[in-house]
Amino acid sequence: MTLKKILILAGTLILAAVVLAACGGAATEAPVAVATEAPTKAPPPTATPVPTVDPAEAIMPIFAASGHADGTAEAFVHWDDVTANPDGIPVACAKCHSEAGFVDFIADGKVDAAVPAPGAAFTCAMCHNDAADKLTSVTFPSGAVIENLGPEARCMTCHQGRESKVSLDKKLAAFGENLDPDAMPAPYKDDKGNDVKLSFSNVHYFAAGGTLYGSQVQMGYQYDGKTYDAKHQHVDGFNTCLGCHDSHSLEVKVETCTECHADVAAVEDLKNIREPSSAEDYDGDGDKTEGVAFEIQGLQETLLGSMQAYALEVAGAEIKYDGATYPYFMGADGKAYPNWTPRLLKAAYNYQVSVKDPGAFAHGGKYIIELLVDSIEDVNSSAKLKTKFDTTVLTRNDAGHFDGSAEAWRHWDGEEAAPYVVPVACAKCHSGSGLPTLLAGGTIPEEGVPAGNGLMCVTCHDGANFPARYAVKDVTMPSGKVVSFGEGDDSNLCLQCHQGRESKASVDKTIAAFNPTDMDVVPAPYKNDQGKDVFLGFKNIHYFPAGVTIFGTEAQGAYEFDGKTYVGMSTHAVTKCGDCHEVHALEIDVAAKCATCHAGATDVRAIRMAAPDYDGDGDITESASSEFDGLREALYTQIKAYTKAKGLDGIVYNAAAYPYWFADKDGNGEPDKNDTGGNIGYSTWSPNLLKAAFNYQYATKDPGAFAHNPKYVAQILIDSIEVMGGDVTKYVRP
């Protein structure tokens, strides 16, 4: 039975029930007439009955006006010439260009045969059937599978494109290995003995799903060595196809956009939207206020111009683009462009990806920006190109909180056990939903939360009282100490994550488990509950622990040595996070924030504080940043000298590679390698070495420590040098 018939029957049954109820149920004997007094006033008018409306009938005219129901559209009439297409709509096209093909596909994941032409537009039955109701996952051209979808699975079955990074790499690999990126590869023979030349690959049209899921489905050509945004996150209720588009008219629900975007009155106005998190000038035109759609447009123009210069100077033939005419990229003669090189193909593919999803700015604008910037940079990196664009004016990534391509958000993408899932221990700070869940008194699920794409508005702003931010009274640090900038102060929100994950307390607890008798000797391992040997290992404070620095000994995040005293909260004129940092861009406007006291300052790292020569190098004019760099370098030198003096394995540090400290037994300054070529982590830790290395990591991972609380950092570094056996008489300890 069709949906329409079901709805009609249901309406009829409801109407019958209403009539029966109004008539008192089953028929009885006629009642005896009883005289009544004449009314003293006219009775109220009887309401006019509202006719029953069949929902399906109401929807039909809305659906009929949509592109899905336009039987005259090219998407449906392309194969109508039976002479040219005797087999009808090909299997490769029938899934999305015919109702019969789509229904066949969702039944078992494939189209069994071509669909006879001429074709026809879609009807209700295409999406309203049992198989469609059960559809919950979509496989993209890259092979990536997105599961646990709702009704949008129907949409993305077709709106996913037909090519990907995977298919482009496979296409190029067919021409051989180690291709010259700037040369046309020699043709190869196909199975039928025909010459195959490198040609353009078309992503296809309206591939919104590919844009939406970004690097998770790799629809764009993602350059090796780069990371990219994953699924675009908007706000709850507006993260899916049907959250923004009417399922029948396909129109954007503009009226719902106005809840947050007051200036939006029509679809075209959506192009002017720019979130506070989009704080960069991506296309380098000097305008940071234009909508993201126009940032993309500027990058498209730059990429096309670079491709045209490259085509003439490197590939040797003029190239033109016509978005309305297949195959889109033409030579001077108006025919398909002939001189494709691998570099040009990748760039052209990404250009087409950005053009053929007209809503890309909303579906996944940051992902598209990354693809375009990388393509521009790659084209202009060709040594053979003479007319180059200055790519230094472009910006690829957002500030860390909103840089969805950053390691802080993408670390879990490739996890085999649970890809794209942030573990419960990390979800508070490495997902957009973890912190507000905890602030609301909730609990993060044991299985973790879906990996995000950076922070969201509702990570810090209370969605129920938007735009108000969550009010936090105080914050418990990893040491157990409780600190606060003041009850309800916005900077307490920053402290929730910028506090590190280890402390003096946890380092002492780790060491105490070994019951050491000599702090300069590697302790013997002990057995854990499973009977396995446990060795003393490095404790990583984690990253950007600015709160630890600002509050000093009140937070005890760094390792404070027994018998020493340390300063508390910074006494700088401004101490709160928002006093110095722009809350979305995270940058420091030195001219506005610092120049009042530090006349002429343009770079915070160049500011010299009124302080002694902490690092003992005799230079009392160098910046505070340089003073602490000097102390850090001195500590690193002393750590290496300590391992040699104590007969421990040599040690080397790499701030960019976990676990940061590596074995260097041969003393060549490079990590030792294992059988597979990997770096060997350092293992011969004495308690004192662990303490000093912990502090070195702390001072490194808070790059603004020199400004957050210089006296505290100087004390920590100098004391660590002393424990490592260094002569500290030349340093000035506050």
Structure description:
34% of the residues lie in helices and 4% in strands. The protein has 734 residues and is mainly alpha-helical. It has four domains: 61-134, no CATH class; 159-188 and 197-405, no CATH class; 415-468, no CATH class; 504-648 and 684-723, no CATH class. The strands form seven sheets. The protein has a two-stranded antiparallel ribbon. It has a two-stranded antiparallel ribbon with strand order 3-4. A hairpin with a 7-residue loop joins strand 5 (320-321) and strand 6 (329-330). The longest helix has 24 residues, at 292-315.
What Rg do the Cα atoms give?
A: 33 Å
Characterize the main sheet.
2 strands, antiparallel
Biggest sheet, strands in spatial order?
1-2
Mean pLDDT: 92
Number of helices: 28
Number of domains: 4
C-alpha geometry: globular
Strand-residue proportion = under 5%
Show unreliable segments: 1-42
Distance between the termini: 84 Å
Helix content: 25-40%
Structural class by helix and strand composition:
mainly alpha
What assembly state would you assign to the polypeptide chains in this entry? single chain
| Counted beta strands | 14
